[in-house]
Amino acid sequence: MSIASVRPGLPLAAVNPVAKVAATVPLSIVLVLTLDPVSAAVAIACELLVFTLVGFGPLLWSPRTLPIWIAAPLTGLSMVLYGAPSGETYWEFGVILVTEGSLLIGLATMTRVIAIALPAVVLFLTIDPTDLADGLAQTLHLPARFVLGALAGLRLVGSSVDDWRTLRLARRARGVADHGVVRRGLGQAFALLVLAIRRGSTLATAMEARGFGAPGERTWARVARFGAAEWAVIAVGCLVAAIAATAAVLAGSWNVVWA
């Protein structure tokens, strides 16, 4: 089962995953180079427009993207409270100093987190691990040993949720889950780590025994194609990055992080 539960009819599901990953690179580079709210806000607006036109409108506000909408404001809030002070001071309490500069940094940080994480999460939900492995091996020509190991690891990620649920029920049945939330969570996380290590070792041994690590050129059951649709996806990613950077430069807010 795919860790993203990809459906065949999902938009962009048939596009080579390498193209989807490559489409996010230009925008990520642009937003990492600068810390300003204009470029990130323009990027978010373009992303929402493009994803809505493609058919990802409901997915943008689904529980799968909820962590982004929660984590981004929290990240921005931390920068508002503890960012570098500059300009007019609005509120001061102990080590907390809210200034005009920290507000701008907090806003820029929040929008940048959303602009970078949103396309990564939405596009990842359309990627099947097997298709990703085919693309990495046939399009980027990465070593087969690395690709197959990554594929096996991604396949096991999907079972982690079920393992967590099973461990919780098993520990409760044995009476070892009656402690505090923090202590119970740490104990269960350690048990899940041990289970993952044992399962990974067993899987690695099984794959070696079946010849997955043998030298020589491998064959692949499915052909990973890279055509006009893939180049169009990459072009859209480059276009969004260019629009965001141009808007920031024209607005005079382009702010290189090391300057």
TrEMBL record:
Q: Which residues are the signal sequence here?
A: none
Quick check: keyword Transmembrane helix in the entry? yes
What is the name of this protein?
Answer: ABC transporter
Subcellular localization(s) per the UniProt record: Membrane
Q: Give the main localization category.
A: membrane
**Transmembrane segments in this chain: where?**
12-34, 40-61, 68-84, 104-127, 231-254
The entry's cellular-component GO terms read:
plasma membrane
Question: What UniProt keywords apply to this chain's record, in alphabetical order?
Answer: Cell membrane, Membrane, Transmembrane, Transmembrane helix
PANTHER family registered for this protein in UniProt: SLL0384 PROTEIN
Q: How does it sit in the membrane?
A: Multi-pass membrane protein
* Any Pfam family matching the protein: CbiQ
Q: Does the keyword Cytoplasm apply?
A: no
